[in-house]
Amino acid sequence: MAFRPNDRVVRQKTALRTWWCEWITICLTLIYSLLAFHDISNGEALLTSKIWFKNGFCVWKNEQVSSQYIVLIVFMILSLVFSRVGTATIYVSWVTS
Fold first, then answer.
1. What is the pLDDT along the chain (97 residues), one digit of tens a residue?
2. Which of 15, 20, 40, 42 has the most Cβ atoms closer than 10 angstroms to its Cβ?
3. How many Å apart are CA 47 and CA 56, to the nearest integer?
């Protein structure tokens, strides 16, 4: 395969986008952690939802569905759309989620 000048530009743009996504993820995780730590250290929900605090900050629940179920469904759909490995990897990921 011959080198195309556009390949380098595409790789650089993808790398920059990935770098920004990583930093945004780090910042959001830091904010989440600071909010949770503040309320945990005070022993009550001051900056967060009382229900969210009661559930341990990880799970949102409704009468019919929880946040874990929603994440599982979204993960399965994205895995099917973007997977190059095949359904075996998707199934293993689903079982271990």
1. 555 667 888 888 888 888 888 899 899 889 988 988 898 899 888 888 887 787 777 676 777 877 778 878 887 777 777 665 555 555 555 555 5
2. 40
3. 14
